[in-house]
């Protein structure tokens, strides 16, 4: 009968509903604060592509660059609340969660080069630090490189004395605060997304960042001088909401782990060159005078900033600092 046939159709349709739900992709919102054309931006884009490939479309990673979804502080809260699933904040931004050991990465002159850094991030210290995030509801998946920071302002920053009274934007790290005070500068914490405008309007005079961040945010257009001090490192931890991660089917988690390993390689392979290129582009713009510190200038900067290691050791934990010294020697 007609009734029977429509009941059968209804049952068939109902049976399809759960199947349709099962087919809907798992969405990962990946929020970050920098431009797409940066090591982090490229790493995130590659991860999205690779995750789709390796899960055959069962996972869809949506990347939101340039603080378009959340600014620094908000993104960390959003991750813990589960409003986004994935972030790659700079290592300087984890201390406000109560994991102060991460500020060891901010210590001025602690790493001579990427080799020193990788010895730490790829070794037991790096893994131990990521584990500490778990009690905050966060799982650490990888370290991604950016690079070594330059100093910029509207006046030349050559000698230590040049920093006196200069208002410098920093990330939310007590170690960076101490580093700036060590040379007589006046540090001010601002979200990354607010930095360009703060420089433009004179809320702050200068800042520190790897060249790729400076250039892609057009900070060189509002900074007349830049010193290639390479005094400290800025890089990232890629993190996911732990509950979300633990709740994924095991095969999906395995595929995403592989996609993350591949994306880590992409981000890290491009980081050094991106920063070189950015510096060349700043130079070519003719808007900013680039100063290469002499060995003596760099030595004096190091001498002025190095006491910060001692000063911050009880905050960061002497054990972590000693382990880093041992790993990089
Ligand atoms: C900054 O705030 O300067 C950086 O952490 C931005 C970034 O994510 O590289």
TrEMBL record:
GO CC annotations on file: outer membrane-bounded periplasmic space
Q: Which Gene3D superfamilies match?
A: Bacterial extracellular solute-binding protein, family 7 (3.40.190.170)
Transmembrane region positions?
none
Q: Which GO terms describe its biological process?
A: C4-dicarboxylate transport; transmembrane transport
State the source organism's domain of life: Bacteria
Keywords associated with the record: Signal, Transport
Kindly indicate where the leader peptide sits in this chain. 1-22
Similarity section: Belongs to the bacterial solute-binding protein 7 family.
Q: What is this protein called in UniProt?
A: C4-dicarboxylate ABC transporter
